[in-house]
Amino acid sequence: MKLQHYLGGLEGLGPVSTETRVFVEPWETRIFGIHTAMMALSAQLPLPQTPSAFHTIWTWADLRKGAESLNPFDYFKYRYYEKWLGGISGYFIQHGYITKEELDALTEECYRDPSKSLPSAGDAAIDDRVVQYLVEGDSPKRDAAVTAEFSVGDLVRIEDVPSVEHTRLPGFLRNKTGVIETVYPGAYTYLCDTGPDGIGPAMTVYCVRFDPNDLWPGNAEPNFSLYADLYARYVASADVSVSVKAA
Question: What's the pTM value of the predicted model, to 2 decimals?
Answer without folding.
Answer: 0.75
